[in-house]
Amino acid sequence: xxxxxxxxxxxxxxxxxxxxxxxxxxxxxxxxxxxxxxxxxxxxxxxxxxxxxxxxxxxxxxxxxxxxxxxxxxxxxxxxxxxxxxxxxx
Length: 90
Fold this sequence. Notes:
mainly beta; CATH 2.40.50.140; 5-stranded mixed barrel
């Protein structure tokens, strides 16, 4: 598969409650231009997950694509890291 020139983002899955859609939180740290302090910003992207393979907490890579719905403009490329599974306490 050829490498794509489309923008990609890496983030953590915040929600997978919709069918074939995940919400990915992408964080960025910027320097304030006047006060020179680090500022943490988070954006939430809706991405297409065709097989519903992602779980909450997974680290994923998403790629910009054509608009798939009103708010969904990204698609899942790969799962970089799976979230640890919690076992219920009896």
